[in-house]
Fold:
Amino acid sequence: MLNEFKAFIAKGNVVDLAVGIIIGAAFTAIVNSLVADLINPIIGLITGGIDFSNLFVDLSGTNPASLKAAKDAGAPVFAYGSFITAVINFLIIAWVVFLLVKAVNKLKEATAKKEAAEAAAAAPAGPTELAVLLEIRDALKK
Structure:
């Protein structure tokens, strides 16, 4: 059982998946910073200073001053601004992943074309029809 587990872990797909998850986690931190520190302030400037991350509806009726104050007080809140920020994060991550996959596919396609061209150039050219007919003629003469 232990040997089977070692063989499973040693497979390239599992290792690739682990690397992808680690890079994805680091990439998520970068995207979160991009959204929070760059995109949301620009959107806030365009919309008149609205900060999405602080948008909420107080469900307790206590009217806290901010989302942080409501959470600190333990008041139930409907934090739709955090959801909007999460949607923006998702769209950015999805767009970047799309661009990466598109670039990798283009690279694979170019590599496949190059390998096909090299294989075609390296393949021995078969005899022409005339050469085959001449060989048949010579064989019949013997």
About this structure: The first strand starts at residue 57 and ends at 58. The helical segments are 2-10, 12-46, 67-73, 80-122, 129-141. Residues 2-141 form a domain with the Non-ribosomal Peptide Synthetase Peptidyl Carrier Protein; Chain A fold (CATH 1.10.1200). Residues 12 and 105 are 20 Å apart (CA to CA).
